[in-house]
Each structure stands twice: as structure tokens, then as C-alpha cells.
Amino acid sequence: METKDCKDVGKLATFVPNKKLSVYNWFYFKEGFARELVTLLFDMFELEPGETVLDPFCGSGTTNLACREYGIDSYGFDVLPLCVLASRVKTRDYDLGKLGRAVKELRQSKFMSQDLGTVPKNIRRFFNPHTLEDVLFFRERLKGFENPVRDFLKLGLITSTTRCSWMYKDGAVLKLRKKPVPQFRKFYLRTLRKMVRDLGKLDTKPCETSIEFGDARNLGLEDESIDGVITSPPYLNKIEYTKIYGVEEFLFFGEEARPGLRSYMGLDTEAEPAFPDLDLPPAANAYFSDMKRILKELYRVCRPGARLGIVLGDGCFPTGVVHCDELLPKLAEEQGFRTERVYILNRRTCTRQRVIKVGKMEESLIIFKK
Ligand SMILES: C[S@@+](CC[C@H](N)C(=O)[O-])C[C@H]1O[C@@H](n2cnc3c(N)ncnc32)[C@H](O)[C@@H]1O
User: Fold this and answer.
1) Contacts 24+ apart (CB under 8 A), 192-196
2) What is the rounded CA–CA span in Å between residue 68 and residue 361?
3) Closest among 53, 54, 61 to 24, alpha carbons compared
4) pLDDT value of residue 109
5) Distance (Å, whole) CA 361 – CA 366
6) From the CB of 216, is ligand 1 less than 6 Å away?
């Protein structure tokens, strides 16, 4: 197995380069990677139109959107309803005339006051009451539209709600930071008009894209149907997606749309450990036992010769660093994959109680071949 230091492309493991790209930037997903990382892998894997790429943890849909630019068919799965919506909205075909008319209708709609009592205090505290009333009004108003227009308007509403809130996502913690916020109605309508304009700027090619609510451990795809996998699973011990996107999930998806907690990977600490001989923290055991199931599933759905590009980071624990870029290849090789290369993209310091250094962590891109 070859390891290569590639810190010059380290920023491609982040969402930052996407912030300037039309459509890619419709939903800011801090945990996402860059379009350019995906297109580099298209070249490395020699993927072509007519072939099929899978992202089993599609997040904000960057892999699938890049596939559409290249005319490559793709599947995306995620357990967070918010991510499924964002990925779908970014990868659909639209009638621009219909979208324009819908925005006009929203602009002309007459405000009706809303009952803020339906929103629990722990969510209300993140909003100026006028903003929240506007948000609830538009949420109600969108029910009158049909898909795909409704989802399009809904994604604009969600991103505008976040931007006009006092929420601040600080790593894995949601904080309150009071600041002046733009007038909501104006901001939302401006966001929608920009989204409509963006569609004219993105050049896509004919291909099939399917985004589904689903669990990476059980994809429901046919055996040997995938030509390439480009993905990034949740990092070990890093982000609790249910917490960090909890406000958006509550306001726009409701209780019934939420996946059971067990659908998120790395939570079943009772599961049989994937590395029984290693003394790993319980969270790491849970994580690797899920990773083992995922790699087995990926081996099943990949055709022989398919390659996988997986971005992931080491885990930081008070007791030390868990080196995922060393352990994941072991699990993948057990399933039958060959590890072609590990590119180290970034290095960070793992600390305990914020100041005591525990070790060095890496963020890597691992290439496997079936
Ligand atoms: C690191 S993010 C992926 C980011 C994505 N590459 C992008 O650029 O936007 C990991 C994603 O995995 C999802 N996830 C967590 N557990 C999952 C599971 N069991 N099956 C499918 N998706 C899952 C999370 O909701 C999150 O969106």
C-alpha cells in the first residue's frame, strides 16, 4: 500500500471551494467535499458517460451533481431527510418558466400571522420572532405547490432560514449568536431568484440520477451494477448530524420523517467489534463494525475492476488517536478489495480538554479496487 502526502489538495476535502459554484452552493454543508475532488477521481478512475457512480453517503449531493455535468449516471443515498432533499433539488431538471411563475406567486402572497407557540422554546430562541413568523408563513404557503417546484422552493426556504437565524454551527455544537439579520421575505425571494438564474449557468449532460433516503449498510442495488464509488462517510467521533441539523429537521421535516437513531452509523456500541484484538474505544468499535457492513455491501454492488475513492478522517479520543486510514484498508481487504493508495490530505492535532495534545490526526483519500 502506497501512502502519499498531498496537502496541496487538502482544501478539496472541504466544502469551501463549492461556495463559489452555482447550484453546488445552494445548501452549505460544512461536512461536504469539493466538486474538484470528484472530477479528479472521474479522471483517475477513467469514468465515462454511460457508466454508473455511487455515493452511499451523498450529503449535499456534490458527487451526483458533478456526475450530471459529465453525463455519468449516479445513485446517492443518505439517512438525513435534509440531505436527501438538498441532493434531489440540486440534481433535477426544471421548467424555468414554472419556477419563475412560482417565485412571482410567492412575492405576491399576502402575509398571514402565524402562531409561534407551535415551535418549542429551544428552537424559537434561534430566531427573531418576525423572522420565524415569516418562515412559518412561507412553509405553509409552499403546500400549495407541486413537485418538483415545491422542493425547489423548500430548499431555498431552508437555506434562507438558516442564514437569517442566530444559529451558529461550531463543529459538533449548535450555538446561539445574536446578530442583525436581513429582512426575511426579501432575503428568501432574492435567494430563489438567484437559484433560478444559477440553473442557466450549469451545463449538464443527459444521464440518470437517483437520490434516495436510505442506509449505506443496505443499499438495495443490484449486484455488480456500480462502476465507481466516490464518497465520504461520517468521520469517527466527529459530528452528530441529528444535533447539528436538528433545527432545520424539526421545522421542515417533522418527527415522522426522522430516521431512527440507529440508522446513523457508528451508534451501536453493542455490535460485534470488527477488530476484536484491538483495545478501541466503544465508539470506534461501533464505527468499524458499521464500516465492515458497508464495505461488504459496496463489494457486492461494485463490478469487478470498479474503484472506490473514500475520504475520511482519524478519530480523536482522550485516550489517543484512532487511525482510520490504517484500519479501514484492513477491513476493505478482508472483503476482497485491494488498497491502491492512501493520499494524506490534511494533518491536525488531536487535543484533550481543548489544550492537551494527544496526537496527530490525518484526513485521507483512500483508493480501493475490486
Ligand atoms: C461526511 S458527510 C458526506 C458529505 C458529502 N460527501 C458531501 O460532499 O456533501 C456524511 C453523510 O452521511 C450520512 N449518513 C450517516 N449515516 C448514514 C447511513 N447509515 N447511511 C447513509 N448515509 C448516512 C450523513 O447524514 C451525512 O450526510
Assistant:
1) 192/103, 192/106, 192/153, 192/156, 193/103, 195/23, 195/26, 195/152, 195/155, 195/156, 196/96, 196/99, 196/100, 196/103
2) 34
3) 61
4) 94
5) 15
6) yes
List the Cα angle 227/294/359 in 5-degree steps.
Answer: 110
Per the structure, the complete domain to which residue 22 belongs is given by 1-370
- Beta bridge partner(s), residue 211: 76
Kindly give the pairing relationship between strand 315-317 and strand 320-322.
antiparallel
Return phi, psi of residue 95, to 5°.
Answer: -95, 110
- For ligand 1, is residue 75 a contact (CB within 6 Å)? no
Whether residue 324 contacts residue 295, with contact meaning beta carbons closer than 8 Å, is answered with no
Domain count, the chain: 1
Cβ pair 22, 195 in contact under 8 A: no
Residue 220 CB-density burial (10 A; 0-12 exposed, 13-18 middle, 19+ buried):
exposed
Query: Which of 57, 58, 213, 253 has most ligand 1 atoms within 8 Å of CB, for mutation?
Result: 57
Range in 54-68, 199-213, 248-262 with the lowest mean pLDDT: 248-262
| Mean pLDDT (whole number) for 73-93 | 96
- Partners of 368 in the beta sheet? 308, 339
Q: Residue-wise over 45-65: b if at least 16 C-beta within 10 A, else e?
A: bebeeebbbbbbbbbbbbbbb
Q: Ligand 1 center to residue 151 CA distance, Å?
A: 20
pTM check: above 0.90: yes
Q: Write the CATH number for 126.
A: 3.40.50.150
| Torsion of the alpha carbons at 93, 96, 101 and 104, rounded to the nearest 10 | 100
Per-residue pLDDT reduced to its tens digit, 297-316? 999 999 999 999 999 999 99
Nearest atom in ligand 1 to the alpha carbon of residue 231 is 6
What pLDDT digit, counting tens, does each position of 93-128 carry? 999 999 999 999 999 999 989 999 999 999 999 999
**C-alpha–C-alpha distance, residues 322 and 314, integer Å:** 6
User: DSSP character for 267?
Assistant: -
Distance from C-alpha of 369 to C-alpha of 341, rounded to nearest angstrom: 10
Question: Does the beta carbon of 29 sit less than 6 angstroms from any atom of ligand 1?
Answer: yes
Alpha carbons 329 and 138: distance in angstroms, whole number = 48
